[in-house]
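Homework help board

Subject: predicted structure for assignment chain

Our instructor gave us this sequence and asked us to write out the predicted structure in C-alpha cell form, then describe one feature. I got the C-alpha cells but I'm not sure how to describe them. Can anyone check?
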Amino acid sequence: MLLLVTFASEFFHRLGDITSLSEGEIIVGILSLIDMALIGNLLLIIIFSGYENFVSKIDTAGHEDRPEWMGHVDFSDLKMKVIGSIVAISAIELLKSFMHMNGGELNAADNVELAWKVGIHLTFVLSGVLFALMDWLGEKRKSH
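My C-alpha cell output:
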C-alpha cells in the first residue's frame, strides 16, 4: 500500500509539473515510476511465491486471471527474479545519475559518487551471473 501511495504521489507530482520540466527531468521521472513498478511487481511475486513455497498452495487452477508463473516459481527461480530486479533497479538508478550530469562537468565528489554507483551496479551484475552459474551447476549435478 505504501508503494502504491508513493507511486501515485510521484505520478501526480510529475504530471502537475509536466509543462515546466526539461526533457531530462521527464525521463528521470518516468524512470522513477518504472523503478517503483518493478519493485511492486517483485513484491507481489515474492509474496505469492513465498506463500506457495513455504506455507500452502493457492488453489486457483484453471482461473483465467491466474498468473502464468504462479505455481512454477521455486526458491531458485525466486532468487533469480530478485537479483534480476535488483540489477534492473540499480541500472535505472545509474541511468538517473548519468541524466543528472551537467554536460559532463562533474566535481570530484560527483566523480566518486558515480564511481561507487557503477561499482555497486557491476557487483550486482556479477552476483546475478554467479547465482545463475550456481543454479546451472546445481541442476546439472542433479541430472547426473
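Reply (TA_rk): Your C-alpha cells look well-formed. For the description, you could write something like this. The chain is about 75% helix and 0% strand. That's the kind of observation they're looking for.
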